Every structure is written in structure tokens, then in C-alpha cells.
């Protein structure tokens, strides 16, 4: 009986440690996703009419869970074209704020976005699903094995009036 208790205690300890490692990996993945997003935005050319008031914040609107929102919050105050980034969480019920420059949506969020309608609003749409681009999104940041990679739809970005730099296009796993 004592052997079984030791064995079960060992299994329980291993499970708790594994959960901590999985959380750390997930937390690190979210931080890397936020960093990739920041650099993709930084090295893109935005339409001049969307930058007319540089005193307004560069708003990144997030349809995501609390952990990803926390990782994105590290971008608050950083600069994009002399504008300070502000992260704003959007609930499932509220309408999309047209002052959003980026909408970041994770696949856990069940809200359906009309990505085609957003494309004409100079809003960059970014998701964490490989199929996000097929649905009309501009950029998909997703897992490939143990790596985070990103795919870009140049067509969808151009519709939004945003041009990715050649450096970004070279780093993308897939460009369509």
C-alpha cells in the first residue's frame, strides 16, 4: 500500500510539474506571438489617411483570452510611426471600433468576424489559426511543430491599404 501511495504521489507531482511546463510554454508562446505581431506592424507601410492624427493612439483591438491579452499588454506605450500603442479588449457583444488599426483574434474566441468588410476599413486583421487567411484575414501567426511561424496574404493586406516590407515577406512561411 505504501508503495502505491509513493507511486501515485510521484505521478501527481509529475502531472503538476508538467502542467507548469505547459503553462510556461504557452505563456512564452503568447509573448513571442505579441513580439511577432509588433514587428510585423512595425515593418509595414500604412495608408497615409490612417495616420492623419499622430496624437491618436495606435489601437490594437483584441478578441482573445486573458492570458494573450496580458502578453499583448506588454506592447502598451511602444511606438508605431510616432503613435503610442494602446491595447483594447473587445467583448463578443460590442461592435468593432473603427479606430482599431489592428484586430487580433485568437481561435478560442467564437465571435464571427466579417473579414471582407474589415478589409476596406484600413484595419489589419491578424489571427492565430492557419486557416485565418483563407477566411479573409491578412496575417496568420500559428504553430508549425514546435515553432511559431506566420503567413501573409498580400492580397488581403493590399485591400486594407497596408503594404508589408520585403523583409517581412522573406521571413513569412507562406505568402499568398
Kindly provide the radius of gyration, computed on alpha-carbon positions and rounded to a whole number of angstroms: 19 Å
Total of helices: 5
Shape: globular
**How many β-strands, per DSSP?**
10
CATH topology: Rossmann fold
Which stretches of 5+ consecutive residues score pLDDT under 50?
A: 3-24
What is the structural class?
alpha/beta
The CA-CA distance between the termini, in Å, is 62 Å
Number of domains: 1
The CATH architecture assignment turns out to be 3-Layer(aba) Sandwich
Q: Give the percentage of residues in beta strands.
A: 15-25%
Largest sheet composition: 8 strands, mixed
Oligomer: single chain
State the helical fraction.
25-40%
| Average residue-wise pLDDT | 80
Name the strands of the widest sheet in spatial order.
3-4-2-5-6-7-8-10
Written description of the protein model:
The chain has 176 residues and is of the alpha/beta class. The chain is 38% helix and 24% strand. It is globular, with a radius of gyration of 19 Å. The chain has a single domain (21-175), classed as Rossmann fold (3-Layer(aba) Sandwich). The longest helix has 41 residues, at 2-42. It contains five helices and ten strands; from the N terminus they run H-E-E-H-E-E-E-H-E-E-E-H-E-H-E. Helix 1 crosses helix 2. Strands 3-4-2-5-6-7-8-10 form an eight-stranded mixed beta sheet. The termini are far apart.
